Amino acid sequence: MSTPAAATAETEGVAARARALTKAYGTGETAVLALDSVDVDIARGRFTAVMGPSGSGKSTLMHCLAGLDSVSAGQVWLGDTEITGLKERELTRLRRDRIGFMFQAFNLLPTLTAAENITLPMDIAGRKPDREWLEQVIDTLGLRDRLKHRPAQLSGGQQQRVACARALASRPELIFADEPTGNLDSRAGAEVLTFLREAVDRLGQTVVMVTHDPVAAGRADLVLFLADGRIVDEMPRPTAEAVLDRLRLFSGGPGTDAATAEDGTPDFDPLRKG
Ligand SMILES: Nc1ncnc2c1ncn2[C@@H]1O[C@H](COP(=O)(O)OP(=O)(O)OP(=O)(O)O)[C@@H](O)[C@H]1O
């Protein structure tokens, strides 16, 4: 139904949206079209995984949706706010207030305790954390007895959980996670995925995760498959096996130089879709 109420409900269900999102790097012969007119809706309160071969545009998509990178053409909204066209200062505030990041580049500070690391972005922004929410995040992530530890005294999985808590602390509208299980062994990786799932299921958060790992993607509600800067497929209610099968289906097509990416992920060719 296209009643105003239904229209509002539809918008409310979308945490981020892109239309004809295009991103080119460089000019002339060296130009790279990293994103080629991408349309995407990120559902609120859901866990979305983004997969695709190396260089397919996953990080670029995440950076453009998060307002970390400018777009060459098209539009991006965070909730109802169009972020394309915002000035850098407005973008900085929007990222700080409305987005949580779990990126390798934003590692934990070694001299701070887990508790201090969790609230650092809010401390820098001069914002007081909502104590009740923070306690809930800490308990959900099982960090209660680790709060006074420094990163070096924590396992890799525990460090990622602290990074997850830091991303959740300000109760952002949207959390972006870039390979959150990338440096972890499978047990620690599974643990982090469980906590991201709980952030969605129990705390109602919205998570977008870039991953090469079919097991990680299998924990999401929806997997978006990117190739050559385009979304070429999506899979609701994925399982690791189904994701792997889909990647295999796409792999080794004509014109692909290598059927397997550097990290062992099967590469795929969008032309063979269907
Ligand atoms: N700052 C940049 N300058 C020039 N080209 C870039 C830049 N960032 C990305 N690219 C190019 O854009 C394309 C998409 O890159 P992107 O990092 O989004 O891919 P990805 O799918 O995240 O890859 P990976 O899985 O290897 O991290 C690639 O061809 C890449 O070389």
Question: Would you summarize the structure shown here?
Answer:
By secondary structure, this protein is of the alpha/beta class. It is built from nine helices and ten strands.
Report on this model:
There is one protein chain. With 274 residues, the chain is of the alpha/beta class. The chain has a domain at 44-67 and 91-254: 3-Layer(aba) Sandwich (Rossmann fold), CATH 3.40.50.300. The relative contact order is 0.15. Mean pLDDT is 85; it is low at 1-10 and 253-274. It is 34% helix and 23% strand. It is globular. Adenosine-5'-triphosphate binds at residues 25-26, 32, 34, 52, 54-60.
Sequence stretches where pLDDT stays below 50 over 5 or more residues: 1-10, 253-274
Strand/helix succession? HEEEHEEHEHHHEHEHEEH
Strand residue percentage:
15-25%
Write the CATH homologous superfamily of one domain: P-loop containing nucleotide triphosphate hydrolases
Give the distinct bound molecules. adenosine-5'-triphosphate
Keywords: ATP-binding, Nucleotide-binding, Transport
GO molecular function: ATP binding
Protein name: ABC transporter ATP-binding protein
Organism: Streptomyces noboritoensis
Keywords for this entry:
single chain; 274 residues; alpha/beta; Rossmann fold; 6-stranded mixed sheet; 4-stranded antiparallel sheet; 9 helices; 34% helix; disordered N terminus; disordered C terminus; binds adenosine-5'-triphosphate
Which helices and strands occur, and which strands form pairs?
Layout: H1 4-12, E1 14-25, E2 32-43, E3 47-51, H2 58-65, E4 73-78, E5 81-82, H3 88-98, E6 99-102, H4 114-125, H5 131-140, H6 156-168, E7 174-178, H7 186-201, E8 207-210, H8 214-217, E9 222-227, E10 230-236, H9 240-250
Parallel strand pairs: 3-8, 3-9, 6-7, 7-8
Antiparallel strand pairs: 1-2, 1-4, 4-5, 9-10
